[in-house]
Design goal:
A hairpin with a 2-residue loop joins strand 5 and strand 6. The model has no long low-confidence stretch (mean pLDDT about 95). Helix 5 packs parallel to helix 6. The protein has 16 helices and 18 strands. It has an 8-stranded mixed β-sheet, with helices on both faces. It has a 6-stranded parallel β-sheet with strand order 15-14-13-16-17-18. Strands 5-6 form a two-stranded antiparallel ribbon. The chain is α/β, with parallel strands linked by helices. The protein folds into 2 domains: about 200 residues, Rossmann fold; about 220 residues, Rossmann fold. Bound molecules: uridine-5'-diphosphate-xylopyranose (2 copies). One uridine-5'-diphosphate-xylopyranose binds next to helix 9.
Length: about 450
């Protein structure tokens, strides 16, 4: 059992915190947001993440708690994770919060005797831990990293919507450190994961592994979307059929022990859609391209990945205009606001770009998301937020499917039952064309 403090109780910090407590560590999460801290201490989850409320409610305050008192939490622990946000500002990573957290942790360590390890969990551009974080920590603590302070970088690989499951069954543990002692201290946190591949390395490599992991996923998505555009232009070629054929290659298959062959999980990133969103892929690829530029390395591939993604939501509008050139007062319903199913996270969701385009063309827009209910959100001014899927559909002449919520899979049956046959535009390509009177999807244009 270790005593652990975590700075930042957001998606990453909080999930990491409760899961570490579940492993038997004593954990305190620190956040500047007092309301969030109170909610967590009342056993309630501040965001939608499967399994989180159940786990939060299970601990007593000595096992897991939240606080706004950073100094006390750091002093009462032997290892501190920094998990504050790292937003992109003008395409560059904003390290203000990380730097401040590192300095505050340093100040708290001034009065603490004994060895303490500080670990960056936030996604930071390669070089940040050795540079900005080390300097802020040494300045705050007036001590030297490597002597009585250990420093490391341990990226998270949590997918929103299944973050708890990802934590409990990690595919790898990447442990960067300034020295062996730091790496050893971080490895101890994960002692119970005996069969998981471990990568013990320096901090820059750990940072780069995280960026490379997200960049390859983003690249596959944009590749699929670019292929989808060509399929649309050619006509009578459906990207979904094309990708099914691609997925069948032995490279993209996994043989099971019973002899059967199934699709490898990577194929879920080889599908056309209306683009990637979320707190990671767009921001991380943008930050990496900016780092390349700053170092004089052009990154045309990742630059294009972002360019394709930026214009991908508009593909749906192009299809719509083919059918309805005048959108003025046209009742259009957008299904889904969250950037993906299983979360209420709206960050960089393609839904907002689609809504904005619709509004500026004068359409009468209704939106429905089964979980995210962002009443008063600036991006939804002038939009009707429906309470139920049925309400959202009642007056629609066009339905645009944006988030792959399982609730929307019954769309065909529901429309049929309600006696409605709007034009359905599938931005995720998991609906069945045959279920609808009027169906169009990204990456296909049937001519004959
Ligand atoms: C995380 C990582 O930190 C980010 O680098 C990664 O790319 C995505 O995941 P996330 O947990 O999603 O970010 O961020 P967010 O949900 O915004 O949480 C950050 C938390 O830190 C917030 O609760 C915020 O109040 C808190 N915070 C921020 C502090 O406690 N102190 C600060 O100085 C800044
Ligand atoms: C991602 C990584 O998957 C995870 O490993 C990392 O730790 C954090 O970043 P996350 O952002 O939670 O996780 O979601 P992910 O499932 O990767 O989806 C990101 C976006 O890509 C979503 O908007 C999703 O709709 C979109 N997407 C995904 C596609 O557009 N097409 C696809 O084929 C797959």
């Amino acid at each position: 059992m270790m005593k652990i403090s975590i700075i930042g109780a957001g998606y990453v910090g909080l999930v990491t915190g409760v899961c570490l407590a579940e492993l038997g560590h004593r954990v305190q999460c620190v956040d500047v947001d007092a309301a969030k801290v109170a909610l967590i201490n009342a056993g309630q989850a501040p965001m939608h993440e499967e399994g989180l409320p159940e786990l939060l409610a299970r601990f007593d305050r000595s096992e897991f708690s939240a606080t706004t008192d950073l100094e006390q939490a750091v002093r009462d622990s032997e290892l501190t994770f920094i998990a504050v946000g790292t937003p992109a500002v003008d395409g560059m990573i904003d390290l203000t919060y990380v730097r401040r957290a590192a300095e505050q942790v340093g100040v708290a360590l001034r009065e603490k005797t004994g060895y303490h390890t500080v670990v960056v969990k936030s996604t930071v551009i390669p070089g940040t831990t050795d540079g900005v974080v080390r300097a802020a920590l040494e300045q705050g603590s007036m001590r030297t990293v490597g002597e009585t302070i250990g420093l490391g970088m341990n990226p998270e690989f949590l997918t929103e919507g299944q973050a708890m499951a990802d934590f409990r069954a990690p595919d790898r543990l990447v442990i960067g450190g300034v020295d062996d002692r730091s790496r050893h201290a971080i490895a101890q946190v994960y002692e119970s994961f005996t069969d998981v591949p471990r990568f013990l390395t320096n901090c820059k490599t750990a940072e780069m592994i995280k960026y490379a992991s997200n960049s390859v996923l983003a690249t596959l998505i944009s590749f699929s979307n670019e292929m989808g555009r060509l399929c649309t232009a050619v006509g009578d070629v459906d990207i979904a059929d094309v990708m099914r054929g691609v997925h069948a290659a032995a490279y993209f298959s996994v043989a099971s022990s019973d002899g059967s062959v199934r699709k490898a999980p990577i194929t879920s990133f080889l599908e056309a859609g209306c683009g990637f969103g979320g707190s990671c892929l767009p921001k991380d690829v943008t930050a990496l391209v900016a780092q390349g530029r700053a170092l004089g390395v052009e990154m045309p591939l990742l630059g294009s990945v972002l360019g394709i993604n930026r214009s991908q939501p508009a593909e749906l509008l192009t299809i719509l205009r083919r059918h309805k050139p005048d959108l003025e007062k046209l009742p259009v319903t957008v299904l889904g606001l969250a950037f993906k199913p299983g979360t209420d996270d709206l960050r960089e969701s393609p839904a907002f770009l689609i809504v904005r385009e619709l509004l500026s063309a004068g359409a009468a827009v209704t939106v429905f998301d089964p979980v995210a209910k962002p009443v008063g959100h600036a991006g939804l001014r002038g939009v009707t937020l429906a309470e139920s899927l049925e309400d959202a559909l009642r007056t629609a002449l066009v339905v645009i499917h944006v988030t792959k919520w399982p609730e929307f899979e019954k769309l065909g049956t529901l429309l049929h039952k309600m006696g409605l046959d709007p034009l359905v535009l599938d931005g995720r390509r998991n609906l069945m064309p045959a279920d609808f009177e009027h169906y169009e999807g990204v990456g296909r244009r049937m001519v004959s």
